[in-house]
Amino acid sequence: MSCCIGDLRDKDVINICDGKCLGYVCDVEIDICTGRLVSIIVPGNNKFFSLSRANEITIPWEKIEKIGDDTILVSVHLSTRCEKERCCKNK
Fold first, then answer.
1. Is 22 exposed, middle or buried (0-12, 13-18, 19+ CB in 10 A)?
2. Torsion on CA atoms 84, 87, 89, 91, rounded to nearest 10
3. End-to-end CA gap in the chain
4. How many CB atoms lie within 10 A of CB 1?
5. Burial zone of 82 (CB within 10 Å; 0-12 exposed, 13-18 middle, 19+ buried)
6. What's the number of CA atoms in the CB half-sphere (13 Å) around residue 67?
7. Residue 9: alpha-carbon gap to chain centroid
8. Among 24, 11, 21, 17, which residue's Cα sits nearest to residue 78?
């Protein structure tokens, strides 16, 4: 399976940890030595135009669960509440 970076930008990124839509892919990170895609980047909380990249969420390629026709499903723990729930479930 292959797709263009432009195709990734048109897909909603959904976090399966909490079901929230994180937005669209705004950038990608590529390892220039291997040519492999390392991570996708979504805007984060501030989805409007911003000069700061502080709110962006970098999602490692390993955290991508599935790439579908319209969505990218990821499994990332973004809040401390979500992390606490995960820790409690593992006990």
1. buried
2. -140
3. 38
4. 3
5. middle
6. 17
7. 11
8. 17
The residue among 28, 14, 30, 17 whose CA lies nearest residue 70 is: 14
CA distances from 19 to 14, 26, 34, 52 (A): 6, 20, 33, 26
Instruction: State the DSSP H helix or E strand holding residue 73, giving kind and residue range, or none if neither.
Output: strand 71-74
- Per residue of the chain (91 residues), give pLDDT as tens: 678 888 888 899 999 999 999 999 999 999 999 999 999 999 876 545 555 566 789 999 999 999 999 999 999 987 644 444 444 444 3
φ, ψ of residue 61 to 5 degrees: the values are -55, -35
Identify the residue whose tokens are 């839509």.
21
Name the pTM for this structure: 0.74
Q: Quote the tokens at residue 35.
A: 């040519």
